[in-house]
């Protein structure tokens, strides 16, 4: 169990297609406009371990649910602590780091097929200062995913995402109490959601 908080670390979570990557970019722009140093990234990352995860998601390689859980966790360790681009060091230099997904995704997705406590144990990482959950019903997410017109990834199925949604709610309710959580209604327009998030961030960091 890791109870530490990584200051200036902002995480977006939610189901596939909920609108995370759209909001990450808008918030990064907002912080830049306030002359803050900011960077954004995602998990799975674009690094070698993240690419291996994508190979599994896109059905190029097969492995076990437990091995996939370990790959996500290894990718996260590298995302945080890689000596060249680790976001842990970046936040220490005063930068805001925004991530599209973090360990809450492992708790929500991997624990569908792997024991929750095991997933928790292999994700003993610092908690973010801010967690933003974009709440969108499974059916709407699936419509948005369909609209992309790309081949479906491993977890993009209704029965699976219904379980993931339930696990997300549990993981958020039981998260580190020092993490500030915002749950936004992701069925609102992109602009409405962005405004709500900006207000929350500005108030938290005293930018207004
Ligand atoms: N609030 C919203 N209302 C309607 N469509 C949205 C909204 N947010 C995002 N979208 C659309 O849904 C799709 C998935 O959004 P995206 O930001 O890529 O989600 P994610 O990163 O969570 O998969 C995109 O086509 C995007 O334009
Ligand atoms: C970070 C992470 C993602 N995932 C899953 C969620 C997605 O189905 C998939 C890829 O994530 P992502 O690229 O964020 O998908 P999307 O843009 O559709 O939301 O990986 C996990 O199962 N565990 C994890 O720890």
What does this structure look like?
With 208 residues, the chain is an alpha/beta fold. The protein has one domain (5-205): Rossmann fold. It contains nine helices and five strands. It has helices at 20-33, 48-57, 65-81, 87-92, 103-109, 116-121, 138-148, 158-173, 190-205; strands at 5-13, 38-42, 96-100, 127-135, 180-185. A five-stranded parallel beta sheet has the order 2-3-1-4-5. Helix 2 (48-57) runs antiparallel to helix 3. The longest helix has 17 residues, at 65-81. The protein is globular, with a radius of gyration of 16 Å. The protein starts with a strand and ends with a helix. The mean pLDDT is 97. The structure holds adenosine-5'-diphosphate (ADP) and thymidine-5'-diphosphate. Adenosine-5'-diphosphate (ADP) binds at residues 14, 16-22, 144, 147, 186, 189-190, 193. Adenosine-5'-diphosphate binds at residues 14, 16-22, 144, 147, 186, 189-190, 193. One of its GO terms (molecular function) is dTMP kinase activity. Belongs to the thymidylate kinase family. It catalyses: dTMP + ATP = dTDP + ADP.
